[in-house]
Here is the input.
Amino acid sequence: MKRVFIFLLSAVAFLQSCMNQKTEVSQQKTAENMGKTIYDYKVESLDGGEINFADYKGKKILIVNTASECGFTPQYADLEKVYQQYKDKVVIIGFPANNFGGQEPGTNAEIGAFCQKNYGVTFPMAAKVSVKGDDTAPIFKYLTEKELNGVKNTAILWNFTKFLIDENGKLIDTFISTTKPTDD
Here is the structure.
């Protein structure tokens, strides 16, 4: 009986030690990531170049996961309107993604041609990415995980979810698909 009691005490002490280490690692990871901003990210652009978020320091950034065959696709027109009106203060960056209903099946070249032909899009567009699941692009992990962005967890429920970043590269808030780009 004494051996069993000593074993149980040892097991409890071991489990507490493991939990404390896990908590310390999590706190350390959170502390390291809390200093990150959007400016720490670079992504491939739709035309094969690079979008370096550090180039947008001092401006607000509106990041939108987009799709060409979605009921919200007409929001491209409003996004372009907002971009043209406020581009000295706000940059809009579209991220085509095929995560919802296969509504972005095209190649980067096809997406670019569609956006230009149908909506006259001139704001920066990133190469097609995944915004959810095991293959989520690192920038969308940052945008959707509080542990990384320091503000909130966000579940992307559909295309045209919007992420507003302040002039210092920190997440301000997120907006669901039904929130129009021209809404206050």
